[in-house]
Write a structure and sequence with these properties.
Blueprint lengths: L1 H19 L6 E5 L3 H7 L4 H22 L3 E8 L7 H20 L1 H5 L2 E6 L7 H13 L6 E9 L1 H17 L10 H7 L10 E4 L11 H5 L4 E4 L9 H33 L5 H10 L5 H9 L1 H11 L1
Parallel strand pairs: 1-2, 1-5, 2-4, 3-4, 5-6
Helix pairs in contact: 1-10, 2-3, 3-4, 4-6, 7-8, 10-11, 11-13
């Protein structure tokens, strides 16, 4: 009886959370932490924790598709994970191989048109994992409704270092002018896979750090971050919806802050000297607190500036 009531309460809370959401992130990156601790608490082998976590991975794809999220990047195996005991590594490699083949052939993946790619230093992985990753890539190459990037042998510093070396070689070979190096140059030199910046990072397991995960794509975009206590195998749809609520609240706060800063600049310098601030203010004026928005609307000089900026 208690179990039924708990399930009913969870479903009701899920509906409430989903109803509250008005905006979802385009790209969610997930650090799937806590598999081993989950298994240890239950007296199981560490590999059992990873297998339980793989079920959550399947669920998050379903949730993301349901919510209209366009891209998900999962931190499955970091460069630091090579330091784990050999037996654990090999078991994890076997699991990754099995899941890559399973995902690539799953009807739900093809029905949802999921594009699967592996990112990272893939040449460091055993041949069986590389072959499975290549198979998943080929099987889903024609899809673009939901992008799933699986970070394997991945490290953010290593990715940035590789990009820097590639750009340096282009400059040294005369194929690229130093002054032409910009954000787009760096983005193109990163691993193939992510198609857009990260909007939200989710980390399970209670640790509050992003562990060198997608530093260029996330930090440069000032991604929202959601840390939660449940281990990855325990992560529920409720937790996922809560993370999206955190993203939404952060987006509202970001818009409000930008609008307030732009308003201060426009008032201090005027439209002519600060056209960019006026443009931002016009874009985010609805994010201002009602009192500031009313004062802005009552100021004919500022309102004229806004209309000019809109034109």
């Amino acid at each position: 009886m208690l179990s039924r009531l708990r399930r009913l309460a969870n479903r009701t809370y899920e509906r409430v959370l989903k109803w509250e959401l008005s905006e979802t992130p385009s790209h969610v990156a997930v650090i799937m932490d806590g598999n081993r601790r989950y298994a240890s608490q239950r007296g199981q082998d560490k590999t059992d924790g990873h297998r339980e976590g793989a079920r959550t991975t399947e669920q998050i794809l379903h949730w993301s598709d349901e919510l209209g999220i366009e891209e998900v990047t999962l931190y499955a195996f970091s460069t630091e994970n090579f330091d784990r005991p050999e037996a654990e590594r090999e078991s994890l490699f076997d699991l990754l191989t099995d899941k890559l083949y399973e995902f690539a052939d799953a009807d739900r993946v093809h029905e949802a048109e999921v594009r699967i790619r592996a990112i990272g230093e893939l040449d460091r992985l055993p041949e069986r994992v590389q072959e499975a990753a290549a198979y998943a890539d080929r099987r889903t190459a024609g899809y673009d409704r939901l992008h799933l990037n699986i970070a394997l042998a991945y490290g953010g510093r290593a990715e940035l270092l590789g990009a820097a070396r590639d750009i340096a070689r282009q400059v040294a070979d005369g194929d690229l002018e130093p002054d032409a190096v910009d954000d787009e140059t760096v983005s193109q030199a990163l691993y193939d896979g992510p198609t857009q910046d990260v909007d939200l990072i989710v980390r399970t397991g209670g640790n509050e750090r992003t562990s060198n995960f997608l530093p260029w794509q996330a930090n440069g975009n000032e991604a929202a971050v959601y840390f939660c206590a449940p281990y990855w195998p325990e992560f529920r749809k409720i937790d996922f919806l809560r993370s999206i609520r955190t993203y939404e609240n952060r987006e509202e706060s970001w818009r409000r802050t930008r609008a307030q800063r732009a308003l201060a600049l426009v008032r201090a310098l005027g439209h002519t000297e600060c056209a960019e601030a006026t443009r931002i203010l016009h874009r985010f004026r609805d994010a201002l607190p009602s009192g500031e928005r009313d004062a802005l609307d009552a100021d004919p000089v500022e309102d004229a500036d806004l209309e000019a900026s809109a034109d």
